[in-house]
Amino acid sequence: MEIRLADDAALRWQGVLNLQPLQSDGTLTLDDLELSPLLPYLRANFPIDAFEATLDARMQYTVSEGADGIFTARLDGLE
């Protein structure tokens, strides 16, 4: 599945999703995400006037709900 975001960024998901109990694992990929909207948050902590960058990331993940109702999440292989 692919979701197109603002400024031609894309979030892609490939994996498995089970609803009862909740369990999912797969790969999330983020391409060409503009980071300039973070500038106001960066200015609060750093002396910065301008900021232009894009983010590409890929990671494996696992999310599951235990018998006690507690959720666990694991991220691996962040690139």
Task: Produce a short descriptive summary.
By secondary structure, this protein is mainly β.
How are the elements arranged and paired?
Blueprint: E1 2-4, E2 10-19, E3 22-34, H1 39-43, E4 54-65, E5 71-76
Antiparallel strand pairs: 1-2, 2-3, 3-4, 4-5
Q: Uncertain spans, ≥5 residues at pLDDT below 50?
A: none
How many whole angstroms does the radius of gyration measure?
Answer: 17 Å
Distance between the termini: 20 Å
Give the helix proportion (percent range).
under 10%
* Major beta sheet, strand line-up: 1-2-3-4-5
Number of DSSP strands? 5
Largest sheet: 5 strands, antiparallel
What key phrases describe this protein's structure?
1 helix, 79 residues, five-stranded antiparallel beta sheet
